[in-house]
């Protein structure tokens, strides 16, 4: 029986069951149907029901790369798949030395800085591409943007073993938008500077106060920037319309309560939050970064603007709030057809040798 190791630099949390968690679950089920046994390696895991049928190694005080290397001294794997790890590091050479016949697939979900990496890091990545790419059989980008950056970062010579496999979501778990939720906006994001939520707060401060009387902005998520964002909210006297909700494991049930999702991000590969929002027929207001433009078409299923352009974001919000701009098409149709979870899982199964 063939054995697969899936290595994920990802923390499992019962209060945050998102798109990747649902992918992991369906992928595990499908691998087992195909006759594989599967070991999963995660950054941290305290058992809860969603993952009860998995075989999981929790890295705890180690990195996930160190954890699988520890296990791989005693356990041989036919396939090793990585998610959310850094590409082209010495880890890939080490795992090949322990499992010389293993087929190694590196899935890149990692966003790049808006202005690119500094010169020193660009040089380092090119050198790592030359040294360690030979130990990776396939490079997978979750968007065309990601594939372009893999080739730019590590070398265009990797083109023949690099391809796009788009993320997908379980569209069946998302309730559709309700009619009575006008001018209710949701933000679903980790709270750090690169997510640009400070720009949203600043954009709101440009609008007339009477325009904001019936506006609600609910922010779901946690992170190191939360204190600063709350301070900005107070500074601009927006406490009556911006509400910090913390993390939620039920975003799939919550999106339908909103008219738009706002994602003012500076960095993105291919956002699951955008797919989830559109699946609930909730259009998206977001930036032109990463793979966003591969899914969001301006004035068709959302509105886009340049990252950091608070004035343009304010103008979009003003027009939406006043009813001068509106997305009328059902945004869920495209997601159900092209970005569903079953398609994503099938595409990942098809990568196996």
TrEMBL record:
Domain of life: Bacteria
Organism, as annotated: Wenyingzhuangia marina
PANTHER family (alphabetical): GLYCOSYLTRANSFERASE
Keywords, sorted A to Z: Transferase
InterPro entries documented for this protein: Glyco_trans_1
Short name of any one Pfam family annotated for the protein: Glycos_transf_1
CDD domains (UniProt xref): GT4_PimA-like
Domain Glycosyl transferase family: from-to ranges: 170-325
GO molecular function, one term: glycosyltransferase activity
Protein name per Swiss-Prot or TrEMBL: Glycosyltransferase involved in cell wall bisynthesis
Keyword Transferase: yes
Coiled-coil stretches: none
């Amino acid at each position: 029986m063939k054995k697969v190791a899936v290595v994920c630099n990802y923390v499992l949390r019962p209060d945050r069951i998102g798109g990747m968690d649902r992918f992991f679950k369906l992928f595990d089920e499908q691998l087992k149907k195909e006759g594989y046994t599967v070991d999963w390696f995660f950054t941290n895991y305290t058992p809860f029901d969603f993952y009860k049928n998995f075989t999981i190694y929790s890295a705890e005080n180690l990195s996930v790369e160190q954890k699988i290397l520890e296990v791989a001294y005693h356990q041989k794997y036919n396939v090793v798949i990585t998610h959310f790890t850094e590409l082209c590091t010495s880890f890939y050479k080490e795992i090949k030395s322990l499992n010389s016949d293993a087929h190694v697939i590196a899935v890149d979900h990692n966003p790049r800085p808006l202005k690119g990496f500094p010169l020193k890091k660009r040089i380092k990545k090119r050198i790592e591409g030359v040294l360690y790419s030979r130990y990776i059989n396939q490079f997978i980008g979750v968007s065309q943007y990601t594939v372009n950056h893999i080739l730019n970062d590590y070398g265009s010579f990797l083109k023949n073993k690099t391809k796009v496999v788009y993320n997908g979501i379980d569209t069946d778990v998302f309730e559709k938008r309700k009619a009575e939720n006008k001018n209710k906006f949701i933000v679903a994001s980790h709270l750090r500077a690169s997510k640009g939520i400070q720009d949203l707060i600043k954009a709101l401060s440009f609008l007339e106060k009477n325009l904001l009387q019936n506006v609600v902005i609910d922010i779901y998520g946690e992170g190191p920037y939360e204190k600063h964002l709350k301070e900005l909210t107070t500074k601009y006297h927006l406490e009556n319309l911006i509400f910090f909700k913390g993390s939620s494991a039920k975003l799939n049930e919550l999106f339908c309560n909103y008219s738009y999702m706002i994602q003012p991000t500076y960095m993105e590969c291919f956002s699951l939050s955008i797919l989830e929002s559109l699946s609930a027929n909730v259009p998206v207001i977001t930036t032109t970064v990463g793979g966003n433009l591969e899914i969001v078409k301006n004035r068709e299923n959302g509105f886009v603007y340049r990252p950091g352009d608070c004035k343009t974001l304010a103008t979009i919000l003003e027009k939406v709030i006043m009813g001068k701009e509106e997305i009328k098409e059902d945004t869920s149709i495209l997601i159900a057809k092209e970005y569903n979870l079953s398609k994503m899982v099938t595409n990942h199964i098809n990568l196996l040798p």
